[in-house]
Amino acid sequence: MTNAHRDSTQPELLVAELDLDEQEERGFAVQSVRRKLLGGICIHIARKNHGRFHAG
User: Fold this and answer.
1) What is the mean pLDDT of residues 21-43?
2) Band (24; pLDDT cuts 50, 70, 90)
3) Measured between alpha carbons, how far is 36 from 28 in angstroms, rounded to an integer?
4) Measured between alpha carbons, how far is 43 from 35 in angstroms, rounded to an integer?
5) What is the mean pLDDT of residues 15-28?
């Protein structure tokens, strides 16, 4: 009975571990996308301000 119990729980553990890995990978992807977006926004604002200073 213990062997059958182990066999039934093991796949769930493996799936849980895979889910964690996928979540981590997605997390990294989201972080890098956010960094790119924030970087682009910062550059855009800097250019706007730079133009204003020159115009002033």
Assistant:
1) 82
2) confident
3) 12
4) 12
5) 76
Cβ atoms within 10 Å, residue 32: 10
Angle formed at CA 23 by CA 22 and CA 28, multiple of 5 degrees: 100
CA distance 56 to 53: 5
Number of Cβ within a 10 Å radius of residue 29: 10
For tokens 């855009």, the residue is 44
SS3 17: helix
Q: What is the pTM of this model?
A: 0.37
| Alpha carbon distance 22, 3 (integer Å) | 29
pLDDT band (50, 70, 90) for residue 21: confident
